[in-house]
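User: Last request for today: this protein with magnesium ion, please.
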Amino acid sequence: MARGKTSFICQNCGSVYARWQGRCDACGEWNTIVEESSTGGIGGGPQRTKRKGKPAALLPLAGESEEAPRIVTGIDEFDRATGGGIVRGSALLVGGDPGIGKSTLLMQVSAALARRKQSVIYVSGEEAVAQVRLRAQRLGAGDTGVMLMAETNVEDILATLDTGRRPDLLVVDSIQTLWTDMAESAPGTVTQVRSSVQAVIRYAKASGAAVILVGHVTKEGQIAGPRVVEHMVDGVLYFEGEAGHHFRILRTVKNRFGPTDEIGVFEMSDIGLREVQNPSELFLGERNSSAPGAAVFAGIEGTRPVLVEIQALVAPTSLGTPRRAVVGWDSARLAMVLAVLEAHCGIRLGQHDVYLNVAGGFRIVEPAADLAVAAALVSSLSGLALPSDSVYFGEISLSGGIRAVAHGGQRLKEAAKLGFRRAVLPAAGLDLPKDMDVAAQAVEALPALVAS
Ligand code: TYD
Ligand code: MG
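Assistant: Here's the final one, the structure of the complex with magnesium ion:
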């Protein structure tokens, strides 16, 4: 092949540059730009031939439509995250840090489907067949009918698939090991990953097999991350967890066939991932309710209420610029809550370090946590513990008002189920059920709450 043009591609986000530079302008990562041959792959290259287009069918928008046919795994937490099962002919991406448990999860999913008489092919480009077998035995999945393939070349994989019966599910672990003859760059680069993934997705659409692709999130940016293929797949799930915690959360960030923001909660054990049916009990498990600085937030993840403890520590600083450290929440939102406390409640924290932690390694994305954060901060500063049977939720506006949040009734129901008797919540927009076991204390503005 004649030497094609080369371009410089960010391995993190896929942006293309004409020359090398140290930092990617698009995603802000350093040292992620690598020179790649632009022959083949998306956008084509010199070998692309001029072809006369052939007319395709034009169809009216109105017409027969049917529910997307789904394959249900029976692992409830996984089915919930995918929006009710894997859609046939679709491509899902499961991303996550190396070692978080992606291969474990997908082997369990494969085994569950095989037990339901679905044919499953697991392509492992990272581990040898013996290793995969060993893990499957540990997971109690050794005797299911899952077929293995230790192959990394896309053409070989597709040729193998063509010789047998179409599988119901094809798992490719991982996209970073795939390579195709169509692209010249090294395996793991953006061009290779994109071209290979595109070939696999084309197979899924043409054959009707569902495909799950595994992608490592890469901190160093040495190999292309899942972000470069996110837009090509039908659904994106991230498998997350804090190092040192057993909890693993499967979070939906994109789903063409269902809701996003759903989560599935698992616990890593020595025999694989266990489903956690009631995450609130788990996250509140080690709670010491008499300590100042802790507030229980009644949150909603997708369709499910989740209660978590928010811990704050406010202490006089010994530094010129006080420290602000946040784990499990947005640091910009903490800055906002601190500013509101200062401007509207007269609580000055300019001479204090502030540490905020969401217990259990959980990560909160809802603004509804503002009120619980404010309560935890004030409690830590004053040294007075909050009532141990109270939950908090509500969004704080810049003017100091407490704004309504959705699903108030559901949050309270979960709180009542776990033995909480009081709830501090927004006065506005309440849709509370009549027969409640929880006493609601509605607040309109933050200063009123701080004073009480
Ligand atoms: P793995 O699925 O290989 O992670 P990934 O594919 O995301 O890189 O899981 C790796 C970790 O999970 C490893 O540190 C060991 C742990 N693990 C268990 O604790 N229990 C188990 O039953 C299995 C299979 C793995
Ligand atoms: Mg793996």
